Amino acid sequence: MRSFDASRLTSGQPGNSSQAPFISPVRYRLLCSSLEEDGVRMADSGGGPAARTVLQQCLQARLQVQPAGEQSEAEYVQISRGMVIYVCFFKGASEDMLPRMVSTLLNLRLCESSSGKMVSVLELPGNVLIVPQATLGGRPKGRAMQYHQNIGKEDGLRLYSAFVSLCEKELMAASAEVTVKHGTYGNRQVLVLDTNGPYTHLMEF
Amino acid sequence: MRSFDASRLTSGQPGNSSQAPFISPVRYRLLCSSLEEDGVRMADSGGGPAARTVLQQCLQARLQVQPAGEQSEAEYVQISRGMVIYVCFFKGASEDMLPRMVSTLLNLRLCESSSGKMVSVLELPGNVLIVPQATLGGRPKGRAMQYHQNIGKEDGLRLYSAFVSLCEKELMAASAEVTVKHGTYGNRQVLVLDTNGPYTHLMEF
């Protein structure tokens, strides 16, 4: 089945030989109207997700939450066996999406149990380390990366904090043995990771 | 700018209230023809990328390339400062795409130089560790992950090897001080990672 990203249809100049030709703006508008007549839902988020997460399994992970100061040592959080969730929110993300997002991530069978079976981090039960990772929102422009679709700083902090709280609530309800740790939003995420295979997955919402 | 995934346009039944209504197959075919007349490129990969990579910056990374055997110890490769490339190929990926893929990854300004400026791994110059990571192709179905869009084993090995060779060629041409190491395709990728912030990025091709 064919697919195409209509958001790129009017970029560039038709006939530009250095890029695939695109349809004219007139035809594009006719296309959208035609589809809307048929009741096709049009995404208004620029075609991208509201949140992007990368998941890695770990034996141990240590994350700096406060850099060393003039009179203080650096501070760290640490988890033993479990899952690292790198998270990035985009413009258009809202608190409404968080319960489903948390439920999905904590219930996906991504963790290897001692018997070799794949189980969720709730079932393992495993610890969770949440790493704010705005860089996941990057899109290349030439040789540089741009982060134009990323959520703004204040909204991002609010959503991130709510995401962390929800994870804590759900994980710690499942087991008293495990914990959720998280990075400081906006800081450099100095991370050390020890794995028996990260089994890196991408999940978008 | 609006966008939509046309590959879903003829799924389901028009008027099905549990899903967004879709356009009729007749109108879909007219749509595709119309766009092709305009020269719009149609992706035949089921709407997904041909390759997916996740990039992380590291101070040091160690990867097991051979597990311990009955009479042998485990073998590892290791890099110092540089970039880890986790790579997954999908059905429809071919060798044609590799030169541009390698060039993009090695020239994107993702690495932090000692002055704090963002430079490419070629400019740093940094080492590269390539980790085959088929799990990146996962899509959730209920609580399980499915990997149906992943490239087959033989083609995957062939492409992965070619990708590694191209990276070696391009990186080592840029500097004699740096190296490319890579994981063993199909093995468990036992990885230990030390970072000053992984600056995790997603790049799809």
From TrEMBL, chains A, B:
Q: Which domain of life is it from?
A: Eukaryota
Give the region (Disordered) as residue ranges.
1-20
Q: What protein name is recorded for this chain?
A: D-aminoacyl-tRNA deacylase
Q: Does the keyword Zinc apply?
A: no
One Pfam short name = Tyr_Deacylase
- Keywords from the UniProt entry: Cytoplasm, Hydrolase
Q: Which reaction does it catalyse?
A: a D-aminoacyl-tRNA + H2O = a tRNA + a D-alpha-amino acid + H(+); glycyl-tRNA(Ala) + H2O = tRNA(Ala) + glycine + H(+)
What EC number is given for this enzyme? 3.1.1.96
Q: What is its main location?
A: cytoplasm
Q: Identify the PANTHER family for this entry.
A: D-AMINOACYL-TRNA DEACYLASE 2, D-TYROSYL-TRNA TYR DEACYLASE
Q: Is Membrane tagged as a keyword?
A: no
Subunit structure, briefly?
A: Homodimer.
